[in-house]
Amino acid sequence: MEILFDFLSAGAFGNASVGNIVMLAVGCGFLFLAIRKDFEPLLLVPIGFGILIGNIPFRLGMELSIYEEGSVLSILYQGVTKGYYPPLIFLGIGAMTDFGAMLSKPRLILLGAAAQSGIFLTLLGALLLGFPVNEAAAIGIIGGADGPTAIFLSSMLAPKYLGAIAIASYSYMALVPVIQPPIIRLLTTRRERLIEMKPSRPVSKRLRILFPIVAFLLTCLIAPGAIPLLGMLFFGNLLKESGVTERLANTARNAFIDIVTILLGLTVGASTDARRFLTPDSLKIFLLGAASFAVATAAGVLFAKLMNVFTKDKINPIIGAAGVSAVPAAARVCQMMGARENPTNYLIGPAMAPNVAGVIGSAVSAGVLLGALAG
Description:
By secondary structure, this protein is an all-alpha fold. It has helices at 2-9, 12-15, 18-35, 41-54, 72-81, 85-96, 100-104, 109-115, 117-128, 133-140, 147-157, 162-174, 176-187, 190-193, 205-222, 227-242, 246-270, 274-277, 280-310, 329-341, 348-373.
């Protein structure tokens, strides 16, 4: 009986808490959204199952927890805490990204820049709620809707809140189809949503090759803190566009990024141990993240409307919402909303311009904040 009692006390019967049950329900909710609703399953399935792994109750000291030094999960989690995984994700993103739409219509870059205002407004909000400036900066980056960038910056500036910031960032990335449409409808008229945009002009091979080199030099000379992210992003894009490294590009955008995504998603999910995750500060982070994402979406839409005041070639303001860096989810939302008003309206091409510009913009913002606050 003593052996049986020891066995039972090592597991859920002796260590379960209400917090564990809540987080297990959250993990199941993520899996439901991913599998049943098809909300970013490549993100939510690993994160959701990771939440289950991280909240199975057991007796501490068994070297199983992600927070117990020497455990398998803690070793894998070093890719998050040390910032290894985000640059590797950016390598794969670069290898699968086509910057042609942005290069064809450079003015749409401004929409990606406008959406970054959500980052800095949320930083101010976090300061008002009492967070120190480093942690406020890491929380603000959630507004970029870029999970790898949020993880990279929070691992440097706010490791205490790394799990909450990472989960918030990926949650809002996955919920783009839920969050953005009401904001777009609120800020636009039907007439504006019916605007049809001209197809993008072809972009030369030479320009496609030169862009990642020149863009890397310009952005990282200004914000050297972004070198790990933008260096890998533009390197991956050069592998794609050069035409001589197709094997490397194909590996980076397929098997390589899939492996890193699995490890990142699973360990981020497993970091949500209820004892560390269910705190008042985590709730504040989620609320600030939601506000940040809403502000970023609204800023992109409103800036597109402002640009239309000064230009003859009108922009459909729907695509301003794609200025957040949730690639390509935000662009798909723009296409869906445009097609709902007019089935012949093809917006995903133009929307990819601010979408990929938003990826660069959020990484530059992270580099600026890191340069200003680190050390």
